Amino acid sequence: MSLEAENPVMTNGNGKAATATPKVEKTPVAETPAVAPVAPVDPNVVMGTYLVPGRPLTPEALAYYYDQNVLEAKENYDANDWADPEQMYSQFDFFLSRVDLNGKTLLDVGTGNGLFFEYLAKKGIKPASITAIDISEEQIKVVKKRFPEVDAIAFDFFKYEFEESYDYVTLFGVAPCLKFIFPQKHRVSALLRLMERSLRYAKEGVAISFLNRNCYEMCEIENYEYTYFYPEEFCSLLSGAKYEISTVDNDLVSNCFIHVRDAWDMPFRFNMNRLDDALNILK
Question: Distance of CA 116 to CAs 25, 93, 187, 219, Å?
Fold first, then answer.
């Protein structure tokens, strides 16, 4: 094929050859979309990383997490977020080795799906009455279905006002969740608030479990939502109290039982204002 065929020659009005200039279509330039302004991060909002990724740590977020747990696990132990049943049973055994719960009144805080009540039934232990409270409505639905004799309440323990006191208050697995309740407070200050409120409703004693030193460093480094405590750190704040502590049964959980009355038979209470002042100084 000749070049002439590829490039046809045109003539102008004077008969001279003129090269055709091809018409170039302009490609429309796309308008740059306006970038939406990024909302500033509120430094006062603590966000979840593991349990509720990207969501503020609030009581509602904690309730949502455990709602989902029980919807998946139903009556199984892992609805309570423990890796194996022994982690739960060691807490129950520690408490029951120190008190006779038969004929006593019990308030179980953070009751989950009620495995403690199943454990009591298997042991033949019969409290006079049991009141259970949990922030997860779905967990409480399971408790009501399985244990109709239990007075089960779906509510935030820190906001619910009980009309009576109980012989014993149990706090199995509650302390690790305190970051959702008090995301901005010093973890020890949050723990003491839990203990102070529990002692208010207990006539004889309070049983509490918390994740111990074997998990502490990971929590601090990775900013995990669960809260961990050194057992010694906690017990150093119980000066004047009668208490017993054990980490023998389980290398993950520390168990503690605090008597409501001290060695002088006086009510044991925390001075929250003094302790808050001390913790703020240490920050």
Answer: 78, 10, 26, 27
**Cα–chain-centroid distance for residue 146?**
24
Q: Which two tokens stand for residue 46?
A: 């603590």
End-to-end CA distance of the chain: 87
| pLDDT tens profile 152-201 | 999 999 999 999 999 999 999 999 999 999 998 888 889 989 999 999 99
- Domains annotated on the chain, with CATH: 59-282 (3.40.50.150)
pTM across the whole model: 0.81
Three-state SS at 27: coil
Sign of CA dihedral 195, 198, 200, 204: negative
Strand intervals (E) in the chain: 9-11, 17-19, 105-109, 129-134, 151-154, 166-171, 202-211, 243-246, 253-259
Task: Spell out the residues 6+ positions from residue 135 whose beta carbon is closer than 8 angstroms to its own.
Answer: 59, 62, 63, 66, 110, 154, 155, 156, 157
> Which residue would you say has higher pLDDT here, 95 or 246?
95
Measured distance CA(119)–CA(194) in Å, rounded: 25
**Which residue's entry shows tokens 């207990």?**
202
